[in-house]
Amino acid sequence: MEQSHQLVISTFRENFNQEPIVVCSPGRVNLIGEHTDYNMGFVLPAAINKGIYIAIKKRDDDVVSLIAADLNKKHQTTLKDYKYSDDNWPNFILGVVDQLLKAGKHLSGFNAVISGDVPLGAGMSSSAALECAVAFSLNHIFDLGLDKLSLVQKAQKAENEFVGLQCGIMDQFASVFGKKKHVIKLDCRSLEYEYVPFDIEGIKIVLFDSMVKHSLASSEYNVRRSQCEEGVSIIQQTYPQVKTLRDATLEMVETCLKHTSADIYNRCKYVVEENDRLLKACEDLKHGDIESFGQKMYDTHEGLSKLYEVSCPELDFIAANAKKESAILGARMMGGGFGGCVIALVKEAEVDEVVKRMKDLYFQKMNKGMNVYITQIEDGTRIL
Ligand code: GAF
């Protein structure tokens, strides 16, 4: 992290000859509760020790001058002329600017340099981290007076409306509200949340990165979301009180969807089961029953792979091998899917041997390497 911090400052000084402020916004892990956020259910994410850094300072004109230090790329536009960029990375910044302007906030132009150590496309939420870093830093330099939840919502809407991914609120919420050594039990309907201690003696959160970049992710993600909505509209014909899948029971899914399309039935069944699983997993945490918690992670993987169909052969292979390791208490694919990481709870004393075996097996089967990240749970978005 220190490297990205230094890089944004030095690049900023070289290019703009000014002193910036620096904001860091972390990536996230999610222990359990996948594809539940946009169905108004629960999630259990945490901010981690990998993040996006932004060095930023306002200008007197309306020029927005951006540098992506890791990509060695520049983008320049104005507050009047900005538009979607085929280069992609500027969109996560311009999308937030767009939301703030639409909300009637007064901005001038600004200079900004970004860098980070959240691997891109690995399901650790680099895009949400960037959006949150931008929202937080603009709020600070222009003194916009937005609270943390408003910043999260602006960042999410930037992704929905400018980038085009109909994501839920989990990633942005985790990045901003993260708390060292705690996971966040977030109710995505009421937006009430609780910090649950997650500092388990002798257990590490390890991410096995399949190195598959999820190219299908945004299109298939939006398809999953509309399949869930279609399921809800069918259930509503019999149960008008059901507004989202959060309100549905397995019995309703069986009665109303069993004889409709298999896809709709499977997607909705998974979401209703996952919500229930998360609540039980939180009970496991309270009782310190990490074995039972871990078993639920494997069950989530099964659901994501077979019912929700957002996994891929590489992720299935990693999760299946994890299950054979006695030092891994639970594992599952994490995030939107179609690539990215498997998250695993691994006994600390055996991390090195386990990682080596998992990497070797992956290489033998897939003929490619796998990156592994041993993460720590850290605080959310902050000024440095
Ligand atoms: C992506 C989205 F951005 C989140 O909102 C969430 O839906 C997640 O996929 C799946 O749980 O990270």
TrEMBL record:
<keyword id="KW-0808">Transferase</keyword>
<feature type="domain" description="Galactokinase N-terminal">
    <location>
        <begin position="11"/>
        <end position="58"/>
    </location>
</feature>
<keyword id="KW-0067">ATP-binding</keyword>
<dbReference type="InterPro" id="IPR036554">
    <property type="entry name" value="GHMP_kinase_C_sf"/>
</dbReference>
<dbReference type="InterPro" id="IPR006204">
    <property type="entry name" value="GHMP_kinase_N_dom"/>
</dbReference>
<dbReference type="InterPro" id="IPR022963">
    <property type="entry name" value="Galactokinase_bac"/>
</dbReference>
<feature type="binding site">
    <location>
        <position position="159"/>
    </location>
    <ligand>
        <name>Mg(2+)</name>
    </ligand>
</feature>
<comment type="function">
    <text>Catalyzes the transfer of the gamma-phosphate of ATP to D-galactose to form alpha-D-galactose-1-phosphate (Gal-1-P).</text>
</comment>
<comment type="similarity">
    <text>Belongs to the GHMP kinase family. GalK subfamily.</text>
</comment>
<keyword id="KW-0299">Galactose metabolism</keyword>
<keyword id="KW-0479">Metal-binding</keyword>
<keyword id="KW-0963">Cytoplasm</keyword>
<feature type="binding site">
    <location>
        <position position="127"/>
    </location>
    <ligand>
        <name>Mg(2+)</name>
    </ligand>
</feature>
<dbReference type="GO" id="GO:0005829">
    <property type="term" value="C:cytosol"/>
</dbReference>
<dbReference type="GO" id="GO:0006012">
    <property type="term" value="P:galactose metabolic process"/>
</dbReference>
<feature type="binding site">
    <location>
        <begin position="34"/>
        <end position="37"/>
    </location>
    <ligand>
        <name>substrate</name>
    </ligand>
</feature>
<feature type="binding site">
    <location>
        <position position="221"/>
    </location>
    <ligand>
        <name>substrate</name>
    </ligand>
</feature>
<dbReference type="InterPro" id="IPR006203">
    <property type="entry name" value="GHMP_knse_ATP-bd_CS"/>
</dbReference>
<dbReference type="InterPro" id="IPR020568">
    <property type="entry name" value="Ribosomal_Su5_D2-typ_SF"/>
</dbReference>
<dbReference type="InterPro" id="IPR013750">
    <property type="entry name" value="GHMP_kinase_C_dom"/>
</dbReference>
<feature type="binding site">
    <location>
        <begin position="121"/>
        <end position="127"/>
    </location>
    <ligand>
        <name>ATP</name>
    </ligand>
</feature>
<dbReference type="Pfam" id="PF08544">
    <property type="entry name" value="GHMP_kinases_C"/>
</dbReference>
<dbReference type="Pfam" id="PF00288">
    <property type="entry name" value="GHMP_kinases_N"/>
</dbReference>
<feature type="site" description="Transition state stabilizer">
    <location>
        <position position="28"/>
    </location>
</feature>
<dbReference type="GO" id="GO:0005524">
    <property type="term" value="F:ATP binding"/>
</dbReference>
<dbReference type="InterPro" id="IPR000705">
    <property type="entry name" value="Galactokinase"/>
</dbReference>
<feature type="domain" description="GHMP kinase N-terminal">
    <location>
        <begin position="91"/>
        <end position="179"/>
    </location>
</feature>
<dbReference type="GO" id="GO:0004335">
    <property type="term" value="F:galactokinase activity"/>
</dbReference>
<feature type="domain" description="GHMP kinase C-terminal">
    <location>
        <begin position="283"/>
        <end position="362"/>
    </location>
</feature>
<dbReference type="InterPro" id="IPR019741">
    <property type="entry name" value="Galactokinase_CS"/>
</dbReference>
<keyword id="KW-0547">Nucleotide-binding</keyword>
<comment type="pathway">
    <text>Carbohydrate metabolism; galactose metabolism.</text>
</comment>
<keyword id="KW-0460">Magnesium</keyword>
<dbReference type="Pfam" id="PF10509">
    <property type="entry name" value="GalKase_gal_bdg"/>
</dbReference>
<feature type="active site" description="Proton acceptor">
    <location>
        <position position="171"/>
    </location>
</feature>
<protein>
    <recommendedName>
        <fullName>Galactokinase</fullName>
        <ecNumber>2.7.1.6</ecNumber>
    </recommendedName>
</protein>
<keyword id="KW-0119">Carbohydrate metabolism</keyword>
<dbReference type="InterPro" id="IPR014721">
    <property type="entry name" value="Ribsml_uS5_D2-typ_fold_subgr"/>
</dbReference>
<dbReference type="InterPro" id="IPR019539">
    <property type="entry name" value="GalKase_N"/>
</dbReference>
<keyword id="KW-0418">Kinase</keyword>
<dbReference type="InterPro" id="IPR006206">
    <property type="entry name" value="Mevalonate/galactokinase"/>
</dbReference>
<dbReference type="GO" id="GO:0000287">
    <property type="term" value="F:magnesium ion binding"/>
</dbReference>
